Here is the input.
Amino acid sequence: MAPTETTIASTNGTLGTQKTKANGQAWERLSQCLPPRDADSEFWWQLHGRQLAVLLDAAGYTLERQLEVLVFHHQWVVPTLGPRPTAANMLPKWRSLITLDGSPIECSWKWNTASKDPEIRYIAEPIGAFAGSPLDPLNQQATRELLHRLSVSMPGVDTALFDHFMSILYDHDNSKYVQEIAAGAHMKTSVHIGFEFLKDRVATKSYFVPRKLGQTSLMPVPDYVKAIRSVQPGGQNAALNMMHDFLLNHPEGPLLTSYSVANDNEPLDETRIKWYFQTPHTSFASVRDIMTLGGRIRAPHMDKSLCELRSLVNAAWHAEAQARQFDELAKYLSGYVYHFDIAPNKPHPEIKVYVPTRHYGGTDATIGKNLARWMEERGRGAHAGRYRQALEELTPHPSAAGGKGVQTFVSCLFKSDGTLDITSYLAPQAFHKQRLEPVGEPRTRLRRGDW
Here is the structure.
């Protein structure tokens, strides 16, 4: 039975569409006892708090753990997400680059394996009260404050590497950034935080998009290498060396454009550094070269992993003839994204490829159905049906069959046994116009806890 819809009056009198049939027991319980906050926080809690609850339940988290995660979300993150959209102004105050519509948060669903349940994560860009102003031109204050507060309250959150990258990837004279803005420069997302909701703890990551004074394009690769190498023991890291050699000496290397770096907020001798790139190439030959670093990575199950990746892409894009052949798709999109996981004492990086699903491949319902079938065929379908149901709750459309854009990417990382670590990325589409458009006549003006 498809979810029904109810028109709900929001705190500022505008109308928003929400699904009423969902497994949001944890969210409903909390919403009945948590005191109301300001209108902006209430919007994000009503929208994304409920979406998060649906995903946690669909992924098999215990009710106790769902409540813990939702309290964490409500107390730590919801108040940082900035102004809500209104009928008069659907444009975000600070347009986050995390999502296409500027929503400052995006969830992900790490698919289950034969032995592990799915994991729910999200990344968020805190939006400060003075984001984009002379006081905070790069919108960094809210992120710095949040991470500092987390490090005080949560054991294991280490900000040493965060502080290192903040010091080296940006300049710190705001007046000079203000001068560049006055001269026509446009400041964008520069830092955000990731949260992984594990069964027994919350793990955090920091993400950086470098922006130095006078920078007119993306930061060049040598500057990234210098920043990463400077925190390695003795300045050396075998995985970084192998990756740098590929970038310099393989034909695919110069086509990879670096745009971001990230780290686990853990002690320096334990943390991984993720280095993000985009490439215009989308052919299977290009994917093979990058995932193997041009043959430098010789894992015993590499051929099996590559075949599984081809099968996964074909399944996700079943409706696209070009995708079925894994051809170049540059005329449809800007390319693929990769991150290279550089860890201490590892001989080579682990590499993850991100395949976009938001531009083509059918509706969200079609993509979800195809992914679910692929999982079921490999004995990983235990949560596939719940995932598809969750998509119905996340879409701003009457049903997931009526639109697309909730699922933005599917990523894949090769495991040592030849299986794939697969993650689906899910945008809240907070600034989608249908979030404020009524569907039918309002039944009633609902209070929190009534739906």
Q: What stands out?
A: Residues 17-216+433-443 form one domain. The longest helix spans residues 39-58.
